[in-house]
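> tool_call: predict_assembly(chains=three)
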Amino acid sequence: MKKSFVAIVCLLGIVSALFSAWGTVSAQDPKNDPADYKIVMIVKQSDSWFDDMAAGIEQLKKDTGLNVSVQVPETGDAASQIAIMENLIAQGVDAICIVPNDPEALIPTIQKARDAGIVVVTHEAPGIADKVDLDVEAFVNEEFGQLFGENLAKAMDGKGSYAGFVGGLTMETHMAWYKAAVEYISENYPEMKPLTDEPYEDKNSVDGAYNKTLEILTAYPEINGFFDCSAHGGGISQALSEKGKAGTVKVVSLALPSMSSTYLKDGSMQHGQAWRPADAGYATCYAAYLIASGQGIETGADLKATGYDNVNVVDNIAYGFAPLEFTADNIDNYNF
Amino acid sequence: MKFTIDRYQKILIFIIAAYCAFVGFVNPAFFSITTVFDIIRTSSTSLIFAIGLLVVMISGGIDVSFMAIALFGSYTTINIMIAYGIDNLAFAVGLSIIFGAVLGLINASLINWLKLPPFIITLGTQNLFHGIMTTFVSDKSFGAGVLPPCLNQFGRATLFQIQTGSGTIGLSASILPVVFVALATWGLINFTMIGRGIVAVGNDEESARRIGFSPARIRYYVYVWSGILAGLTGIVYVAQINALYPNKLIGGELPIVAAVVIGGAKITGGDGKVFGAILGVLLIYLLNSTLILIGLSSSWNDLFIGSVLVASIATSSYQERIRNRKNLIFTD
Amino acid sequence: MEPILNVKNITKAFSGVRVLKNVSLTVNRGEIHCLVGENGCGKSTLVKCVSGVYTPDEGEIVLNGQRFTKLTTQQAIQNGVQVIYQDMSLFRHMSVAENIAIEKIRAKGARLINWKDVAGIAAEQTRKINVKIDLEKEIFECPIAIRQLTAICRALAHDAKILVMDEPTTALTKNEVSQLLTIVQELKSQGMSIIFISHKLDEVFSVADVITVIRNGEKIGDYNRAEINEKRLSELMTGREIDYPRYRRDFTENTPLLEVKGLSRKGHFNDISFTLRKGDIVGMIGLLGSGRSEIAMSLFGLNPIDSGEIFVSGEKVSIAAPQDAKRRGIALLPEDRFREGLFTDLKIKENVSSTVIDEISPRGCLDFSEEDRLAEKCIETFKVRAPSRETVVRSLSGGNQQKIVIGKWVETKPNIFIMDSPTVGIDIGSKAEIYEQIHNFAKNGMAFLLISDEVEEILANCNRVLILEKGRIKTILEAQDLRQPDAKKLILEEIGSRDLQPDTEPSTK
């Protein structure tokens, strides 16, 4: 599947290159044709999230004629991403975009790529932004976290006790959202109380979220709401349904539309939120092109994707404002 | 052979009881029928996995590919069901079991043919099976909406329901496959010649061969049985979580191995009891699902579970040592 | 008496080396036939020919009047040949009953196990040999003696007519041996033929009807028990006159190297006191449960004591771990050399150097030439029969393996050497060579504590003997006592075991 997928992308690349050779040409560019720029996106792994990202990148190729493609690692770890990067360095591409599985582990390889004159742009890796040419984020994590807080508070009518989940306590992004959400709630909704100081871990699995929810319901039967910063809130909804508490106990979760639509529609999940991988991929690769072609990126730059048309660049990180919110009403509009 | 609770199992039961008393003391909410039902529901898949692994370990082998087999069986089966609009639980279980059996057969064949340690072989096939699945079947995730409804119906089915203060609770139907598998495996090990052959091969392959058992053939039975149970568990797992991912389960093998070993199975083979494996799984689940009740915050989880496990293993092995001392067996 | 087994002029060679040369053997119904010979003389090969494991190059085997030139294991079993090998082929985690019955039930082609049948078959066999065993216990919980009985019962379950026992008494204590020998007699009275292989000549004399001596693959002869004595038999086996040299201590210096005062451990031993001086070889003998091995373990830091004092060279020491013992110059030769004393898959030189690896590794790097030198020295001193120092230990005979174990401990240059049953399962020739070296080391000032089951061994080596009973020292015999002509009888009486005298009826527990 992966190989055939890559093959299809390549094939599409050739075809679309033939048909769109006259695409936008920038004046400052030493190479005049965007098709001369070879940009490769390395995603984390193969799943529907990154399939959607690949679709966005395909769209970028159609729109601009850039020679951009996607590489999918065999396994979701740093080692296979490093292997792909090494390969690309040897090929001498113009830019590498990457969604790192383990940002710190990639630093030496990133350095090697940049030494070879390759532009490296990351996504979802603000922690190593000083080691790359640019990091592109869909939003400022605090704002996204506050959105969790706001959505949960609205669902709970601003009162009651709630619990928060993260994938794991060591996952920085999840923790940033969690903290922002809890802070936001305590500032704006004094009648809402978290059960504990620390979030619970769902270990990035549906059954993890399910098992913990059952236990929380036993320990704290009075609970009114949950929010999950990893995309496994379905487990919470599932547990609540089985205990007859769907709808009375509210759930807000990071969500993939394909995995959450059932829960949103049957009322066991009130609100889902995410960002659009297609747009993120589009913007990241386009940013790489801008840097590689010497145009550079400053606050206010337009990365041509929804939510990234006016990015805010701080400390080498380009923030868009592209959160995506799902409810029962709009969930069918998305298919990733 | 009657069903007996051996010394080791008594220690485990004691540890479990003592721990339950402790949790109940800290938080009386623990003592409720809900807790029992919840643990049965959440531990059911691990129980079946553990029983399948137990058989492999009794035969002197080890299998770390059972999660990959479960994933392969259930994922492929359900993909087929979605593609052809089939909504039949028996079909799901049947086909997934067939996939499991075939993959188990591949494991056994490779072990017999290459004569390499089963750990290396199954570590390889774990990646192989998963790779085949993601490459040739699919690598998409499926949400609750598109899965065949029969799965979730089974996942949510209850055998009976009880009215409690906090609402209606029911005993999950997931206990049915667990009970069936436990009894079948117990019978297989204790009452069939194949089962005794498994024990014999695990004790001493050469001696087993001398009295007419074929270790190679025994391995086929063992790994196919383990594969069948993995295939079954895959379906139960998907039914419970009501979602289908191409990358879950895998990576969760070691806790199951730990549970089986804590349950008294010898890593060197030849010894292990179904009831022991069940106790081992229950102990681990109990630890995992009572941390919130005793008010432990998440950052203490691993430390706490690790400490209790090490303490319980130390207690039981110390008992063993005292007994060995009596028989003048010095191992240190 | 009618012959049940007739081996006629068998020759067997492995890669050109003739291991058996034209050997014939006749075993009659209801006869105990002992097979004796040094290690590697071809006894085991002969047994494997009889059981169908090997096919002889020449000659034939007549079983129950049927002639076989190519006997298969299946045919051998059908004709009632059952072999109990030294490893006994038992299943550790199965019950005694199942071990006895499983093969029989399997052979019937049963698909299911009926545990009543298992218990029935097992009970029937134990009745045949008139012993009571806990049939429910798993083998790993049973002492060696019970395992041996289980193996015998399993053979009986197969309607054995000829039972071959390959050194069955090696790991048994005196009492257990006598029980086993009683059972062998009992089986004989039921009309079974028994081929009994042993190194211990006193056992051979106590049960044998006929003794066949094999040397270098050739049969030396068949002898009735009555027409031969131990000394003559040793000569026949080795081809030379074996008279163990007696050790005599001739040091005048009497300061103790090791002094033990009131050593006790509950349930193991009680109030043990003795001293070892320079050049002492002190023997320790006693029945199972007398506490001999436990004392050795305690002195080496493997079995913590409850009370008592240990002095090494006059200094009070506490020995809590083997490292402490090693540092004080104490070495232990354990009873089970396969499990505790040797790395059987490593080479001779690697085994020899293993105890002194730090000493011969200046700056952390192993000095290979020093390792080679040590290995050569060991091979030479102990007359180890091995192709080279590179030989893997597993391929050596038991006697030569034991020489390596002793050799590697000698390398640590201990002052005090505790040996637990150093010559178990070793042929007479090798024994003599080991004794000679023990004497040499003692003459150079090393002190030995020698634990043994064999009175002959004690007499040949010790200048003092402690006789233990139920964890206490019962009697101490000094050098002059041991030089009395009736010393052997005296020791046996003190141990409380009369059964090894050929002419007394063995006692049963």
